[in-house]
Amino acid sequence: ITPCKKKSEASGFCYINDIVLAILELLNHYARVLYIDIDIHHGDGVEEAFYNTDRVMTASFHKYGEYFPGTGGVKDIGVNKGKKYSINFPLMDGIDDQSYQSIFKPIMAKIMETFQPGAVVLQCGADSLAGDRLGCFNLSLKGHAACVDYMKSFNVPLLILGGGGYTVRNVARCWANETGAVLDQKLSEEIPYNEYYEYYGPDFNLHITPSNMENHNTKKYMEDTKIELFECLSSLPKPSVQIKQMPRYLGGDQKESSVKESNPDVRISTREADKMVMDEREFYEDDKDQDRQAIPMQLS
Fold first, then answer.
1. pTM beyond cutoff 0.90
2. Is 123 exposed, middle or buried (0-12, 13-18, 19+ CB in 10 A)?
């Protein structure tokens, strides 16, 4: 799952932002959609896609400062109709389960109260776990999964996705555990034998032990940031948006689709022109329904 991809560029190991595509589809059925990002990186690509609309609220809890992608300050709250619909809680190194839940639950409760989404998308990046190769948070599997359990408690349609994670054995642990949480199944602490069993040594247990790293998120900092976000959310207008059917295509001008190729006096868009290009190595249909003779690819 790729939350960092932008409209015009790849970013953060992401070249297709499938989360944005999923939210666009959900907007065909729900007036408002909430996106939550607990990946250690700021969910900048999703935020940017909906930065000026009030139909999608984004909430990101992430490492902030000299850290990729370097965005997601508490003052970044959206623009135009989307002002106050982007919620960012910037965090510092070492946040643990207790500290994380002390901000996640009240912020999400306030968002659910004020925004009243018809559906929720929760991105569960595993790089916010303790011991991640690129991360610097100190969450356990239980603390991470507590976010899933809490959002389930609202009984709103919930799409749960993966995300980042760079200590592979802990990514597998995390998403196995959270699949169990989604299905209300408590998993055994002992990992069953499998072909990758040696990856989970030396203890071969499901859960991981947080480190003794220092938590740089002071109580005062978290409380002050929480109050600032509460003030932003308290001033949101009462939701009244009606569902508006969105087009099945993404982007572009609807009129472009009706342009006929046979009219030489009408300039067509690049998007439409691209649709008319057929690679000579592609399959084609004729009366015999056979493939064209293979043409070797030219490598530059």
1. no
2. buried
